[in-house]
Write a structure and sequence with these properties.
Order of helices and strands: HHHHHHHHHHEEEHEEHEHHHEHEEEHH
Number of strands: 10
CATH architecture of the largest domain: Up-down Bundle
CATH class of the largest domain: Mainly Alpha
Shape: elongated
Largest sheet: 6 strands, mixed
Mean pLDDT: 84
Distance between the termini: 76 Å
Number of domains: 3
CATH topology of the largest domain: ABC transporter transmembrane region fold
Helix content: 55-70%
Number of helices: 18
């Protein structure tokens, strides 16, 4: 269990001064509490003797008052130092966890569910805070208090003290067994909580699909099943607690009964004074609490260890794609070259790309066409290293992308996917996402190029309209145009549109493409589309088929190849457009 806490050692070292101050305050509290029964003993013996003065009683009362004041002040201070440090550590670890998630490659998030990662950043780190806060207090306090009380008890009457503490080894053995049982059960609880969070997150994210297919009952059933399993696992932990604490209370009551019997005999035999047995009873009560709280300590430490192991899995994960040591800094220019690029995903039966070669000078436009699964998206992802290409196969700005700084490489690209993701913010904030300080003139320019300005009157609050989670209040075409404006705002050297005009009507698409080609002559454009009309003005068009380049050339050259896929698609789309126009005219 303790080896799991190695993850927290750097944070504990950073706050060691605060923990030391908190431990010192705990010592003051415990020392004052151990002193209190001695003061009570003195007061009882004074009163029982019948020969005492008011001054002696007042003196004892004053010492009690000072001890109580020391306890109160020190309790506030140890809470401030220790609980404050544990919350600072929780915040620092959450920052580190989130930063690590930002560094990890996209493949990591495909292998790990969002709900599980959220559970680690919230529930698990809360358990770590409890372990490093109250867990530390109960462990430190229990060890010192137990030692101090045992010394005080045996100093007064070794025989009576020995008889009174006979049940304590049984309590210790119970605590050790209890810790193992709780640790195993709690780890299962955490895993089921992650599954529960994952189902809830996935359902809320896909609520439109759930409702459109009328699958509310199925998802409610899945959630209910996961919720029942989580409740069952939680109850198994509660059952252990329900058995453990009454048994501990019984054993602690047994120690009190033994003390009354043995201590009473000692008082009757004048081996102990009335004050000493009262003090012994107080010490025994003080001793029983650390024994009982040891159960809490073991539980918190077990929970903290289980949660730390889950957090450590993320913190120790290394990004699959990262900048090489000594990577070349600076944003590259817009020229692109592929040299016999071949890529195969893990577990795939055939390559996603095989022997793809092409050269795209800076400022030119590339069009990409192909069937579903032909490798178009893989080709685009290889350029900014969203998937890792082999060495010497992908060049941007005349340099191998593996030799460039990853951040600078990706800043050269403006990437607009078909499924455009928008943040739950205003339209303006989504456009300014890459460049928060974007000037008003440039803002109006990019929304004009994306043909978004024509829709501003449709937005209830203009550019300050909040688009909702994932842009759910906007149409598909509006989301795509916001994403295009967002990419243009960053003034990329290479603009990539991955079927990013699929939800836009033909007239708007034509206007956007014309504006894009006029907007910056030096920018390289890569257009992926199923529409031949979208690729009409490209300098080079490649047709992909099963990961290979089946055709390449200009629009006119590919149309001239009447037996090729490009010409076939052009004819089919022309017939479709003609049929649509004819149907509209007849209507």
């Amino acid at each position: 269990m303790l080896r799991e806490y190695r993850t927290a050692l750097p944070y504990l070292r950073e706050h060691r001064g605060r923990y030391a101050a908190g431990a010192l305050c705990l010592l003051v509290v415990d020392g004052s509490q151990v002193l209190m029964p001695q003061l009570v003993k003195r007061a009882v013996d004074l009163v029982s003797s019948g020969a005492f003065s008011r001054r002696e009683v007042l003196e004892v009362c004053l010492w009690m008052l000072l001890a109580a004041l020391a306890i109160a002040v020190s309790r506030f201070l140890w809470r401030y130092f220790i609980h404050g440090s544990s919350r600072r550590i929780e915040a620092a670890m959450r920052d580190a966890l989130f930063s690590r998630l930002m560094d990890l490659s996209a493949g990591y998030f495909q292998a790990n569910k969002t709900g599980d990662l959220m559970a680690r950043a919230t529930n698990d780190l809360g358990n770590v805070r409890q372990a490093l806060g109250m867990g530390f207090v109960t462990l430190f306090d229990g060890v010192f208090m137990t030692a101090a009380v045992l010394v005080a008890m045996f100093a007064q009457n070794p025989r009576v003290a020995l008889l009174a503490v006979i049940p304590l080894p049984a309590i210790t053995l119970l605590i050790l067994g209890f810790g193992g049982m709780v640790g195993r059960r709690f780890h299962k609880v955490q895993e089921l909580y992650s599954r529960l969070s994952g189902i809830a997150q996935e359902t809320m994210s896909g609520i439109r699909v759930v409702k459109s297919f009328v699958k509310e009952e199925r998802f409610a059933s899945d959630f209910s099943e996961a919720n029942d399993r989580y409740a069952e696992a939680s109850l198994s932990v509660a059952k252990v607690f329900a058995f453990f604490f009454p048994l501990i209370s019984f054993l602690s009551g047994l120690t009190t009964a033994i003390l009354i019997l043995a201590g009473g005999r000692a008082v009757l035999g004048n081996a102990m004074s009335p004050g000493e047995i009262v003090a012994m009873l107080a010490y025994l009560e003080m001793l029983i609490w650390p024994m009982i709280s040891a159960g809490f300590t073991v539980t918190m430490l077990q929970r903290g260890a289980a949660s730390l192991s889950r957090v450590a899995e993320v913190l120790s994960a290394e990004p699959a794609i990262a900048s090489a040591p000594g990577a070349i800094r600076g944003r590259p220019s817009g020229s692109v070259e592929l040299r016999e690029l071949s890529l195969t995903y893990g577990g795939a039966g055939r390559p996603a790309l095989e022997g793809v070669s092409l050269r795209l000078p800076e400022g030119s436009t590339l069009g990409v066409l192909g069937r579903v699964g032909s490798g178009k998206s893989t080709l685009l992802k290889a350029l900014p290293r969203l998937v890792e290409p082999p060495p010497g196969t992908v060049f941007v700005g005349g340099r191998d992308v593996l030799s460039l700084d990853l951040g600078d490489l990706r800043r050269a690209f403006g990437f607009v996917p078909q499924d455009s993701f928008l943040f739950s913010d205003t339209v303006a904030a989504n456009v300014r996402f890459a460049v928060p300080e974007l000037g008003e003139e440039r803002f109006r320019r990019v929304v004009s190029i994306a043909a978004l300005d024509r829709d501003v009157e449709l937005f209830p609050a203009g550019w300050e309209t909040v688009v909702g989670e994932r842009g759910m209040t906007l149409s598909g075409g509006q989301k795509q145009r916001v994403a295009i404006a967002r990419a243009l705002a960053a003034d990329p050297a290479i603009l990539v549109l991955d079927d990013a005009l699929s939800a836009v009507d033909a007239e708007t698409e034509k206007a956007i493409l014309a504006a894009l080609l006029r907007e910056r002559a030096g920018r390289t454009n890569i257009l992926v589309s199923h529409r031949v009309s979208t690729l009409r003005n490209a300098d080079l068009v490649v047709v992909l088929d099963e990961g290979r380049v089946a055709q390449s050339g200009s629009h006119a050259e590919l149309l001239a190849d009447s037996g090729g896929y490009y010409a076939e698609m052009a004819r089919l789309q022309e017939l479709e457009a003609g049929y649509g126009s004819g149907a509209a005219g007849r209507a």
